[in-house]
Design goal:
By secondary structure, the chain is α/β, with parallel strands linked by helices. The protein is built from 10 helices and 8 strands. Helices cover 50% and strands 16% of the residues. A hairpin with a 2-residue loop joins strand 4 and strand 5. The longest helix has 22 residues. Its EC number is 2.7.4.25.
Length: 231
């Protein structure tokens, strides 16, 4: 059966990555965490003191960045590598979260990452989560879902994630970070965060991960059936 593209967009900490990983596993598809790519770029920019207001310096930095995903045989998860170095844990830290929207808003950064994402999904059979997958990266994706949740619930989830990684961050700080990222992501000129017209809305505030996964898998089953009937 011909494979398709599943695009999951939405706000931070609403369960996109967890859902996308499980959906990809169930389908036998590749999972691509596009947010991690922007986090890796942010890490590079911070480590190399790249001036975000200087387009030339930004482009020079991008020319020296290679972001790849490699499966960890011990954990079974895809991990992010920046220029050959495993940065999976580092890019999840709060100081990256504080800056990633400021970096990802830059047109040059988005152009570079979108180009890479399109290459990764060219053969279909992928589940991608991010902010602009269904609108900019794969507007022809067969399944599009826009995920959201109440900000306080998202903040509690994010705080729990950080706690499990031994990072203690005040709840109010996380709420403000999420609100700031939502605003920057939704108002940027280049590929803003928005729901595609043909995307299914999924509010994850009061449902389980299994219910989220089932919601997406039902859409995939319907899309595959429609494709088969149309042939």
């Amino acid at each position: 059966m011909k494979k398709i593209v599943v695009a999951l967009d939405g706000h931070s900490s609403c369960g996109k990555s967890t859902t996308a990983k499980q959906v990809a596993k169930e389908l036998g598809y590749a999972y691509i965490d596009t947010g991690a790519m922007y986090r890796a770029v942010t890490l590079y920019f911070l480590e190399h003191y790249v001036d975000l207001t200087n387009p030339k310096k930004v482009q020079e930095a991008l020319n020296n960045i290679e972001v790849t995903f490699h499966r960890n045989p011990k954990t079974g998860r895809n991990e992010v590598f920046l220029n050959g170095l495993n940065v999976e844990d580092e890019i999840r830290k709060m100081y990256i979260s504080d800056k990633v929207s400021e970096v990802s808003v830059l047109p040059a950064v988005r152009h570079a990452m979108v180009a890479e994402q399109k290459k990764m999904g060219k053969r279909r059979g992928v589940v991608m989560d991010g902010r602009d997958i269904g609108t900019a990266v794969f507007p022809d994706a067969e399944v599009k879902v826009f995920m959201t949740a109440e900000v306080e619930i998202r903040a509690r989830r994010r705080q729990q994630e950080l706690f499990e990684k031994k990072q203690m961050v005040p709840f109010d700080d996380i709420v403000e970070n999420l609100k700031k990222r939502d605003f920057i992501d939704s108002t940027r000129a280049e590929s803003p965060l928005r729901r595609a017209e043909d995307a299914h809305l999924l509010d994850t505030s009061y449902i389980t991960i299994d219910e989220q996964v089932d919601f997406v898998l039902d859409l995939v089953a319907s899309a595959l059936l429609q494709r088969e009937l149309a042939q």
